[in-house]
Structures are given as structure tokens and as C-alpha cells.
Amino acid sequence: MTIHQRPARVLRDKIASAGLVRIMATHSPLSARLAEEAGFDGLWASGFELSALYGLADVSLISMTQHLDMVRAILDQTRLPLVADLDTGFGNAINVIHAMEQYQRAGAAAVVIEDKTFPKVTSLAADARQELLRIAEFQGKIEAARAARRDPDFLIIARTEALIAGLGQAEALKRAAAYAEAGADMILVHSKEKTPDEIERFVKAWSGKLPIVVVPTAYPQLNEARIRALGKIAMVIYGNHAIRAAVTAMQNVFARIVADGGIQNVDKEIVPVDEIFRLQRMDQIKAAERKFLR
Ligand code: SPV
Ligand code: MG
After folding, report:
1. Is 124 in the pocket of ligand 1 (CB under 6 A)?
2. Which pLDDT value is given to residue 105?
3. 8 CB less than 6 Å from ligand 1?
4. Which end of the chain is more exposed for a tag (fewer CB within 10 A), N or C?
5. Of 13, 41, 58, 267, which one is the catalytic site residue?
6. 119 pairs with which residues across the strands?
């Protein structure tokens, strides 16, 4: 498959027509293909998922190059628009400019940059260090991203971690407004509360023009019906459900094989090899062999 020529336009059109787009986390080209087949509107090149794939914590250990290589491999295999998780932008505003150039060239449709200090610590861990940049410094990073934008449709999503850092609603709203003023296209607001209340309060209090992005990992009760009812939210990111689904499946199957002393029982419960052939497009290989190998 080829990369869509204007992935950012595709994403913007989907937002305009659907009101709310559903973006599924991916950590590999295969998970991206499965997300596309399931009907998601776009992909989240999640730093958390890729870190976990390497067996690492999501604390800025994965390099930009590792993430970018995976983004390129994913975009080789899907036509879905991709939202790239740039964490803190891999450094300061200069690093953001470099990242913007690279991710646009790779064919991403959007980037998310968060207002934490580098190196960051994953947002969802309890009692983790959460340090935020000064507002002016993060505004500089957003302005740098804008200056590096080649396609005017490319989406720059500013993510505030004010609620994650325990700084409260007023700080989150102040930061969101400051990031809008600096030229962000959307505001991602994150929370690790166990209920949607904190995010719902934020959304109700948000009087800015920019649409909001949510990642309801910690408060799964915030389903799409509830999100739509709130209004103002244009994107929901299912932040780590590909890697968690993969871990669930592997843990179950591996445990069964050990317990059963063989693969005789699980064989019927997992996809047949033919399904993997389908995902690998073995039919195309066979057709090419018939045509070209002499
Ligand atoms: C990610 O998936 O890498 C995210 C979302 O940034 S979260 O892990 O919830 O912070
Ligand atoms: Mg992340």
C-alpha cells in the first residue's frame, strides 16, 4: 500500500465529517493493519506502546530515530492517517523543528507534543515525577512546530499535563489557552483520575475555540456516546489497547501451552496460519512468483 498523499487533509476531513475521530494505538505495522481492518479513523504512534514493545518504561528511553523508524514502517502498511506521539518533542524547540521535519516527511498527519520536561515519566504511573515546562517555553515549542509546518493541514496538538501533575483545573485551562494562543490546532488534556469527572469538568469549563483530544485510558466509562454528549471533543485516542490486547493474548496462550504440555488445545483457539498469510499478503507473493519466476 502507498502512503496517502495528503494524510493531514484526510484526518481533517474525517474530523469534519464524523465530528469525533477514533484513533487506535499501534506499536507495529501489523497492529496498524489490524486497527485499519477494525475500522478506526487513524493510528496513534504511541510512545508507551513502543517502549513496552522493547520491554522498557515510557520514560524517554526510546529515541526519536527508533520511533520514527516504526512510524515509517507503519505508514508503509496502512492508509490511515497517523498521529505521532512526540512526547516532549525530544528536547527543546530546536529538537521540535527537527522532529517536525522528519515526521512530516515520513507521512504523519499530526503530532502531539506534551508540556513536560525532558526526560519525561509516563503519565499514568501513580506517584511518578511529573515536571512541567514554563508556559512561555512550551509556547516557544508550539511556535517552532508551526514554523516547521509544510502542509497547512498538518495538525499540531498541544498536550497539557497540568492535571496529571496535580496542578488543578485553573492551571490546565490557563495552559490550554496559552497553547491555543501560541498556534496549536487542538488541545489534548490528560488525567489519571479513575473517573471521567476531572476531564468532564475541564471540557465544560473550556471556552476556547480549539477542539479537545482525550485519552480515556484511566476512566474507560468515558465512552464515545458520553464524549459526543460533552461536545468540544474531536478526537479520542485509545492509548495502549493494542499492546495490552497483545499481552493478554500471549499470556493466555503461553500459559495454556505450558499447562497442557503442548499446543494441541490452543491450536483451535488462535488464528490459523492462513490468517497470518492473509495479513502478510502471501497471495500477492504467490501471484508474483507465478508471473515472474521462470
Ligand atoms: C502514549 O500512549 O504513549 C501516551 C498516552 O502518551 S499515555 O500513556 O496515557 O500517556
Ligand atoms: Mg506517550
Report:
1. yes
2. 98
3. no
4. C
5. 58
6. none
pLDDT tens column, 48-78? 999 999 999 999 999 999 999 999 999 999 9
Cell of 106: 515520513
Burial 16-37 (b: 16+ CB within 10 A, else e): eeeebbbbbbbbbbbbbbbbbe
Beta bridge partners of 114: 159
**Within 10 Å of residue 44's Cβ, how many Cβ atoms?**
29
DSSP letters, 176-216, are: HHHHHHTT-SEEEE----SSTHHHHHHHHH--SSS-EEE-G
> Residue 11 has what pLDDT?
98
Q: Specify the 3-state DSSP secondary structure of 70.
A: helix
pLDDT value of residue 5: 64
Work out the average pLDDT over 235-249.
98
Structure confidence at residue 270 (pLDDT) = 98
- Residue 236 pairs with which residues in a beta bridge? 22, 214
For residue 263, give the C-alpha cell: 499446543
Tell me, yes or no, if 85 is annotated catalytic: no
Question: Containing H/E element for 107?
Answer: none
Cα gap 26→45, rounded to integer Å: 6
The residue written with cell numbers 512510524 in the block is 71
**Cα distance between residue 154 and residue 74, in whole Å:** 18
Task: List 23's β-bridge partners, or say none.
Answer: 42, 237
